[in-house]
Every structure is written in C-alpha cells, then in structure tokens.
Design a protein that fits this description.
Elements lengths: L3 H19 L3 H21 L8 H10 L5 H4 L5 H19 L9 H13 L5 H12 L5 H7 L2 H14 L1
Helix pairs in contact: 1-3, 3-5, 7-8
C-alpha cells in the first residue's frame, strides 16, 4: 500500500498536469479525449484486463469523478467500484478523526504535575489534582496525575515510608 506522502506527491503532479491542460487549445483536448476513448475501446474489445489500480490512482479517479458525469465515461472500473472507493475514503477519514482515547495533556502541565509531586512528596494523586483545580482552575483527573508523575516519586515515597516504620 502506498504511503500518504506518495499519494500526495502523485496528486500534486496530476495537478500540475491539469494546469498545463488549461493552456492547451480546446481542439487538442477533444482530440486527446477521443484518442484515449479509442484506446479504452480497444482494451474492452480485446478483453485486456488492466493491471491493478494503486491507491494514488484510486484517489485521483475518485476526485476527478466529482467533476463530471462519470457513469457515462467509466470503462476502466465498474461504477460500484468507484462508489466503494468513495466509501473507503470516508471510512478512512472518520477512522482517523475518531481515534480512540483522549488527547494528551500539554507538556507544561505534565512538567507541573511532576514538579508538584517531587516538591510535595506526601501529596497523593488526589491532592495534586485538587490543588491544580482549586488554585489554578485546571481540571485534571487523579488518574491523569498518576499517569504523568515521575516514577521516582513513587520510589521516594515507598522508601521514606519504610524509614518511618
């Protein structure tokens, strides 16, 4: 499967080709379209199967299909295939947009949690979370505090508790 970078590069090169088409005469464009349609008719007539279409070609065909009545011009792939590509693109988009999990907290807040834990070794995760909420107005769950505080803090509390008893 092609990477997103190669797909974007291929789409950029096709965009440059489109810009070049803007400067061609209308007659040469019609001739090119007729030439390409004749080539496709020969492929269909001879029963030659085209090679498997890669991801970049799928994306470009799906985007191009939005610009004209593609059902009348579609020969390389079946209409159901193009519709399936559109659906796959939307599935990919929504899978990317709805990734599981919460977004990470800012780096400054992580550093603040670590500093508070080191400077106040007797404070637990609940106390640090409450201090952040009451004094700074930052709502952070105790589990988030536990996730981001230093592991050294846990070792420090365990050793200092062992010394007291």
């Amino acid at each position: 499967m092609l990477s997103a970078v190669s797909i974007v590069a291929r789409l950029a090169s096709e965009l440059v080709g489109w810009v070049a088409l803007a400067f061609q005469s209308r007659q040469s464009l019609h001739a090119e379209v007729l030439f390409l349609r004749r080539q496709l008719a020969l492929y269909v007539e001879r029963g030659v199967k085209p090679r498997r279409i890669d991801a970049a070609t799928r994306v470009s065909l799906a985007l191009l299909s939005r610009l004209f009545a593609w059902r009348s011009a579609l020969v390389v792939v079946r209409p159901q295939t193009l519709i399936r590509w559109h659906r796959a693109g939307f599935r990919l988009l929504w899978r990317w947009k709805s990734r599981p999990g919460r977004p990470p907290i800012p780096t400054e807040l992580r550093q603040l949690i670590r500093r508070m834990a080191l400077e106040n070794p007797l404070w637990g995760q609940e106390r640090i979370a409450n201090e952040l909420w009451v004094k700074l107005g930052l709502h952070v769950s105790p589990r988030t505090v536990r996730k981001y505080r230093n592991r050294q803090w846990v070792a420090h509390v365990a050793t200092s508790a062992g010394r007291r008893s």
